[in-house]
Queue: 4 jobs
Job 1
Amino acid sequence: MSDYAVSLLVRIGVEAFVALSAYLLLVIGRISFGQQAFFVIGGYAAGIATALYGAPLAVGIMVGAVAAGVAGALLSAVMAPAGGIYFAAGSLAFGELVRVALLSFHYQVPVGADLTGPAGADGFRGIRALFTGGMSVTTYMLAVSGLLAVTSVVIVLLLSSRWGEAMRMVGEDETASASLGVRVRRVAALTMAGAGALAGLGGGLFVHYVTYIEPGHSDVMLGVHSLAYAFIGGLGTPLGPIIGVALDIGLLESFRFLAGYRMIVFGGLVMGLLVVRPRGLLDEVAVHRLSRLVAWGRR
Amino acid sequence: MVDFLQALVDGVMLGATYSLLGLGFTLIFGVLRRLNLAFGPTILVGIYAGSHVGLAWPGALWAVVAATVVAAILCGIYVERCSFRALARQAPVVSMISTFAVWMQLQELVSLFEASRTMPYPSPAWLPALTVGPILLRSDALLMWSGATAIMLALFVLLYRTRFGTAVRAVADSSEAATLMGVNVSVIGAAAFLLASTVGGLAGVLIAQSQQQVTPYFGLWATVKGLTAMLLGGAGSLPGAVAGGVILGVVETQTLWHFGGQWRDLASFALLFLVVALSPRARSEPTL
């Protein structure tokens, strides 16, 4: 497989984690413009774990996910009661606060001959655990894909469990679900923690592939894109956001000949798609029809 | 003390343009109950159009203003058609995602026509600066404040003293009740959108003549400032948006003056975050 194809697939995998995290929040009816913050928190934490303290790659990536999950849980203490446009704006503000805070985050320790670690606006370079560990990029790409597949299955199982039922109830109507005994605050807090961990996982996978991260990676555009992916691919299943990412990156790459007009064409396609299929390609109706088709095939 | 007063005056003048952006946001959000993320980028296109006209005909300031406002209005009509009218029966969030797609288009449209990343924007250089006691009033800031105040007064007369304004506020209050009173809600929605684009274009002129340049980041910047001003004043309230803009402007200039440039954005985002964390309205606003 060519390096180009591998890098494209890693990018799709990494962004799919951020898209899934925005999707989880959509299930509980929250629109987030701030998932990029957790992506960056996860990236920094994972990088610090491996590059500064010599943790193995897998441990470092887990550290990143846990750090972002904890950040999500902490944020939920403030944001869980907020709904609608307020949640959207608060998450946007949080994303930018994290970016500005990282601009003055210096934490460098000597590793070998030189200093390594986050250096404010200059970012955090030299996160080489993937390459010093001797893993090939193709293996890494397969690992990212495998992790994404496992995550999707876990989310599908979660959403079809009682927990998923509670999450959807919160998304539909908080007052009604509270009156039926759903602990709205707890569901929102745990979902925000889980969504944070997913984005953080994406961040940890990202830094080890590109070997550096900077405050600018907490970009509002990443957050809004990851939200839009669910609406492109479909809100019916966790597959939707992943399809959205693959379509976005795949189409943008295949539109190279349109140099300079890519976003105009792509934006137009998304606008048209939203008119025809407002809940994305794989919406609830399509998922239902497909599952009936599968059930009919089994008979 | 003089520093504090100077920063306060600067903040009020800067804040007046934030109020305009907040009013544009409020007009659309209040009437349609939908968020228009492409509001900033439509103004961006307007300013770029004005900048190009300014380069082609140096000195023709009226042409620059006209080009800016007309381009912003045309983009506003495009957004209204594609993201609001075509999706009127869908959930509000679908419109919001659609405006984001328009944003990507407008951003690239700008980059197609730009010569460099930063474009110059003409300003009326003949205006003198005023000094009142120890306080300096920069001419561009003064123009920004007086222009924004005049536009706001005109807007409030239109919204609170005419039949059309009553209809707009009726739809914002309750579109069902307004329909029952014989108001054509979809016409009022489109008119409010047009009005918001005009206000946005004029705000763009005032901001760009003060900064004397424009970069493609202006779209994101204007959207964030407008959204913050609207939310600070309580989403949907017109006087609130004015107050929110001024508060945002004052907080920014005070931080800039006392702590330095790098804290300015931090302060404005911290303010937005605090509003979400503390506002009781945040807890009772499930719509989007």
Job 2
Amino acid sequence: MSATTIETSEYATSYLTDGFTLRSWLLTTDHKRIALLYLGSITFFFFIGGAAAALIRYNLIVPEGMIASAETYNRIFTMHGVVMVWFFLIPAVPVTLGNFVVPLMLGARDLAFPKLNLISWYLFIIAGMVVVYSLFVGGVDTGWTFYTPLSSEYSNGHVVATVVAIFIAGFSSIATGLNFIVTIHRLRAPGMTWYKMPVFLWSLYATSVILVLATPVLAMTLILLGFERIFRVGVFDPALGGDPLLFQHLFWFYSHPAVYVMILPGFGVVSEIIPAFSRKRIFGYNFIVWCSISIAVISFLVWGHHMFVAGTSIYSAMVFSILSYLVAVPSAIKVFNWLGTMHKGYIRFDAPMLYALGFIGLFTIGGLTGLFVAALGADVHLTQTYFVVAHFHYVMVGGMVSAFFAGLHYWWPKITGRMYPEMWGRLGALIIFIGFNLTFFPQFILGYLGMPRRYHSYPPEFEVLNVLSSAGATILAVAYLLPLAYLTWSLLYGERAPANPWGATGLEWQTQSPPLTENFDETPIVTDPPYNYPPPEVVPHRV
Amino acid sequence: MSETSLPHGFQYSNAGHQSGTAISGMWLFLATEVLFFGAIILSWIYCRHWNPAGFDAGAQKTQLAIGTINTVILLTSSLVYSAGLAFIEAGNRRRLIQCCVITWALGFSFLILKFGLEYYKDFSANLFPGSDFAINGALGGGARLFYVFYFVSTALHGIHMIGGLVLVGWIILRARRDEFTPLYFTPVAVVGLYWSFVDVVWIVLYALIYLVGRGS
């Protein structure tokens, strides 16, 4: 304990004290400061998207809908989807936690292209301002998928502004992905071979491959969509001689891999936390890292499963169905690896671990129900119902948001130099798990019973389940506001964090908390394998 | 002066490390560009497959002569730029500047021919797929699609060309300030990669716009 006090008092200087002016933040090229800029930005968008979600659940409390107009409802759920997908889920872990810890984990002083990193934040902010503009001038009513010809011909929302926002946000993603790939290839510390890298880096590498290869396709698709809408010429609109299925193919060629952008970083975060709080080496390291890579590769080959009822050929649908089953294999292997890591481990239930355990449970439900909708026959019944909504929320919200919070709590001492209040953290992890299940589990049943998604009203027999779901959403809202409150509190009043509060391996824990601007006094040399945790008998007690 | 004593970013171990990283970054960026143009080229070929006659009717109204001259101009500019790269490797800064100026002038004339002359002719002939589009009847739908792809792809290629001219201009300025030596010419190489890529995109577009469907 006393050693800790001495250590912390030595940390008078850090990246946080390296300049206090606004300019030192807005023109910084320090990956750690950019991570914080991003953290503030995505938190803002998370609450905008969350407010839209609250309105959706509020509307669905009664069968006829609490919000009078279907048109308004359409705009609300579209804004929820657009903001949550492109302004929270896709960037969330890579640009905040990833930006902060990638160079630290590699033993590097910064990303390969620090200025590009800053540019990516500005692109994100410009995109965000455009999307907020489109929200305030009336929003858009097409759903986040922008299917043609609704988006190109019939929608009277602000399609072009929203599309421009997503286009710009895409280049922000590309810049981040490019930076990570090049950094991981080129800036590993001496001795940091590929198989000594923490799994989080492999996950972000796989994520980045998707970002740089899929996002440009979306960019071009959106250009063609915008051109079609502005000039009334047909690429996708059948009335003008275009092909609407072409739009769906191009859109899902990006958007299906993009759902792995939303979940792969979560796998990475959990793969750091489970060994750290089980005091064990990760089980099957090679399997985990190669599963990340194979998920990234297979993710490019499954987009057609979004189009089973769109009128594509039955043979292509069968192939896409089989390929979609294939992508479940590496995902399942990872779950078994995490369980194997915990088996006979020395498990500690700190907040990051509780969030990570919540992730495993919710992701497993989300993943298994994904098999239902990947099955050709079942999907014909389940597609466009609340079953699908529940499925992807279990993965995206139950999985990814839990993983994001897990990582945020895990690295919070490193990022801020302060400990968060542990009891509140555990409580938050518990509430999110309960609130989430109460919100979304009823939606599986609703979907199975045939309630379609994207309608502002529903038959009265679905009322009880909908009220349950809306009640769960209020608990979920508490679970999101709680960390905002106690993490902010900890910035001022939290206990000072030692360099390595969890006794974790990984180079990021070898430097001070918060780190220096240059990350390390001298470049570390890596000799140990990853997750080289000491056997339980010599586990240090938590300080 | 050896390579190890050159200045470099604080995250790199030496200047060679930084230079290699910059070049790999540009290669990866070009990979994203391949997917970017790949999406429109794929859509183009796909739509052409369903409307071959309409696309042929559209292609026959394109300005083959201007397109061909522009192809020659662009290929020459890449050749000249590569020569400039070889010159700076040999330490000849004056020749590098000359090559870059020629490259810039060739690129600029490409833009003048493309957007000054060819677009003018296209718009005069009502080939923009708007309300008074020139080709009507059974082939009108396919021809319209052809011109959607024509205008979108050439405009995007043009934007890439303008970006390239800015970069080549930046190389000229830096070369005039004597910043490049046989030991340090990474920006010249990086911009060269980009310029050649824009060239390669044009070669594909040239075939799609002017050649396919023009026969007989």
Job 3
Amino acid sequence: MNLQLKHLIIVAYITFLFSSFLVSPIIAGSQKTLQTSVEKDFWLETAGTAWRYFKPGVGVSISTGLNYGSLNWHRLTDWDLGIYISALIAARNLGILGEEGEWGFNGRIGKVLKFLSERPISPNGIPYWSYDSDSGGSPSEELASPSDFGRLLLALDDLRKVNPEWASQINFIISRYNVSALANSKYFAGNGVYEYYSARGYWAFDFDTPALKALENLGNGKFMNLYGINLPKAWITSEPLVLAVLEGKADKQYKSILDKVFEAQKRRYENEGVLTAFSEGAYFDPYYYIYEWIITGDGKTWVLWVNNKAVNASEAIFTKVAYGFYAIYGDEYSKRLVDKVKNLVTEEGFLEGVTVNGEILNIVTDKTNSMILEAAAYAYLKPLKTMETTLPINETEKKVFEAFKAVAEAEEKGGNISILVAELNSAIKLIQEAEATGDKAFIEKALVKLDKIISEAPKVGESGLTAARWRQIKTMVALSIEVAVGLIVYIYAPKAFWRAWIKVKGKWKVKTVEKR
Amino acid sequence: MVIIVAATVYQGFFPKKSTEHFSELGILGPNMKIADYPKELRVNESFTLYLYIGNHEGKIAYYRILVKLGNKSSFINETVPMDAPIIAKYEKVLMNNETWIYPISLSINKEGVNLRLVFEMWIYDEAVNGFKYYGRWNQLWLNVTASKPS
């Protein structure tokens, strides 16, 4: 290798080092974005699978535009219809359902509202329990439950918020029914979590539910302890609690019940090794539909019921609840649940679930695919919602936050923020003194300090940037010197060494000595 | 020579930083030790503890510590803060690798057995422009009896 080629390699290597170091921060930055985008892609893909069910001719009747309760049951209750409306809103918000066209959001909602305006109802104004999805007629005279109608009201309330132009048509529909009779039902005197979810639908349309007890009286003051978690001795399962949170219908108290319900199921897994996602859903023959109660009103735990009787069947991990939990909590346990059900996918949407014995519930329903769509919309749009683990703030706090952000920005730029931090803490202390004494003068002083911090912080940031630039220049100079010295040594040192050697030892004479 | 050059470049552009980011919350007893915590108290009896916070987030952080009084059925975990009355609040901005020990004086204004004095750590989160529950908490179990008649 000649000398010039060696030089070229050294220069190329240094250039490579420079370019890779300078480029690496940009790559690291985009990885963070990718992470978010991966999560978003996951939820969009999940929603896309669930949406398959609601395609016309699959889980939605082409002739009426009404949904089927399941692929095998071409009927719907008011609960199912509410579920369908919620699925449409979620799909629209996720951008997988357009507004226009016969099977767009508006076209589909139009068909639903037409059905609700015209469907046969009982002479006393109560809708029937179920309707034929293909004809819109009622196959029997059994009346709708207050719970199912409440679920429909919740969805209609959401719908008029999505498009206020539908409000008058929805109000006309409501006026067809004897809502007051349903709202006054003794159903609401029940001791369970479903009642509170459905009642909110009536409240949304200004109907009181007088029989409903206060939520703090759920369980009538009695509690059950499940793995260290105290839950009211009442009819409790995940379904209405998860729906309420996904739909923004849960107040702090109702949400806290879901938190405990989730925690109890998680601890059951940790203690017993049984993956648990209790809810209601379609099941194998001869049961068809089961309710999994975490607690019953009479104090039994982890039991399965069919037609108001306990049955000895294998527990199911419901797909919808796994995704619902994952959207809300996103922790390791909910991820484990999703991993268990994520492959239960068909061309028509997600399957109902899997039993703890590994038998797949090979049934596709509207309730499962709707809740998964709602979970996806919740998770996808969560950053836009107010987190419940945040605290309310006031105007003074806003100013403190503004000052903190300015200081943080100055720090990011490399500025020396120690004085700013001391001032910020001093302002915070003044605010605390104002809160303790009620003296507003402390607030005034704090605000002056905060304004000063906000105006000073950018200068500190700039000085940091300048210092950083100088550091880079110094590095470059040091580097250039190192390279130059290195090259000089590499090129000239051997020549200089041999010159010196010759100078010192050049006059030496070499004698041959004969061997004796 | 190449190694020397690479090391210089790396140090110049990427000063050494710690990679694991976390915050510390600790409660020390009246003697600034992890011992001698109060257990039996009288109503409104004042007691002193020390609050310890450590910032290892790799950047400046703004902390809020909420002191709540719950009971044995109150629920709290790393994602759910306790739904109980707040009896005190402390705030501090700390630079990276800075710690703060602060004496706090508290008293309980009601009787109770197995009361839980919970200290929750909240951190300012720019994304929500507010304090967010950090999931770190400590607790003391207390029995509080009626005040001595004067």
Job 4
Amino acid sequence: MTWTTEQLAGLVEPDRAHRKAYTDPEIFDLEMERIFERTWIYIGHESQVKNPGDYYLAQVGRQPVIMIRGQDGEIHVLYNRCPHRGAQICTARKGNTGNHFYCSYHAWTFELDGKLEGMPAKREYEGTNLDFDDPEFHMARPAQVDNYRGFWFANLSEGGPDLATHLGESAGAFDQLIDRAPGKETEIVGDCFRMVQQSNWKIFLENQLDSSHPGVTHESTGKAAQKLEAKIRADGEEPPMELSFLTDFARLGHDGWTKFGTVGYRNGHSSLEGYMGLRPDDPDTNEYVRRMYEAYGEEKAEEILAVDIHHMIVYPCNSVQPPLQQLRTIRPLTQDKTLTEIWHFRLKDAPEPIYRRSLAYYYMVNSPSTLINADDLFNWWKCQHGLESSASEWVSFHRKAGQDEVRDGISYSAPESMSELPLRHMMHAWRDYMTADAGAKS
Amino acid sequence: MTAACDTLAAADATAVADVSVETQRAVEQFLYRQAEILDERQMDDWMGLFTEDGWYWMPAEEDQTEGDGQPNIFWEDQGLMMMRIARNTHPRAHSQAPHNRLNHVVSNVIIESENADGDVIVRSRFHCAEYFRYEIRTFSGKYRHLLKKTPDGYKIALQRVDLVNREGPYDYVLQWWL
């Protein structure tokens, strides 16, 4: 079927969404066209490409792109396609191209900003319409490329808000990833972990800010971590703080997640307040705070450290966890398959134990051997299968529906609740993206 | 720094030691038994395979020589192993319902070195089918074990596991060790 604007709008109601939004392949194609190829999508961080010629591949909607550092030190984003016969230029996911791109099919070469440099027997193009200055024969650039403090994004369409406007309040998550460093810089560590979720991309975003799931989904891991803590104490030692990342899931129980508010910002961005108490009174943290005071002055440092975001969803493609320096990017593959890239960062000049906390979270929650996402991914797979059923056409977002507070266009969850505000908020933004003036590039 | 990682990194990974038939046989039996413990889910026997300070390590990068302080796919001591067993066997570990099943074949067992104490470094290859969510997926890779000889037989001081598809992407997670 062809979806009309009215039909698309009808898939989202104030407190529920239609299952077809998660299961229909045509809807998925429309999402790629109207969301992922019409707004700002995260490519990568500048520290992934330190030297001229360094590149990383990424995906924007259905389009494969390359992020590369040019000879002049500037970062470029280009479509990964030779303008000659369409072959992909780079196949390894990361690497260094040297001082130009080289197509393996007919040896066309390109400068690192995509400009056509030459090819064998170049004179045979004399008298043809091939023009070296015509962008048609360069590696193409997305319509818009920009960065926010070293975090690079591309927008495949012209028009619409610029990057800073699009990010709005959600930019605070990127600020936190940098400003929490006493050295005022942040750096990617290693390559990312990549996991394929057998579920729709929206299920992932919803889960990140769904505060009524952790105590239930992760109960077994929370209990197992408590068992380990008890063993360490029995051996006369103090358990490492990192274990509390897991024991929280058991400690807070099924219904103890009411003190962590959620917020819905413009353009679909949303956040969950922190709950991990990452500023304990221990020597490592105190040394870190001392370095922050030294770098920023007490007042500014306290202002930075007071921001307490557990997850920020930068709609539609990122989940950022600033206090633990984690960043996840989603690359939707089909309506029921989503690739995630999971990165973590090192804060310049922070004490090593602060990095170790980030690394422990990266391992225990986000690695391919995770005991946390094992249960999340399983739930999402079950949801995807369940939603194939026509037992009901609707997904419920009723928890505290109608009781959110809206101030200046920003929605706040009802106090002391595990409100499903972010789930409603993101689907309402989804409806707006999907039904925005479909013909024009908004 | 982890001493066992240093030992493994310093050893010649292409060496072939001239060991007795008895040593070769005992080491092979140890590797087969370790695989069987995973395949048969005899988790009460798993921890006893390792020394008190032993590590199970699956690096994230090929050129890694150290597990501590950097990203890994697995980097687990006895404490984390205990936690993994406790979690995977917990009645509310719902992604273990139904249980996955593993089936290993371990082969190409080459002892690289045997020291005066009888400790050995051994490399081998494995192939493992996992049945999960009513489908089969396969893993393949290389083991390197640093085995301590003790009065109770060999114990693992360090097991390094290099998957051929180390960098992923991973379709779902690895709930058990491979």
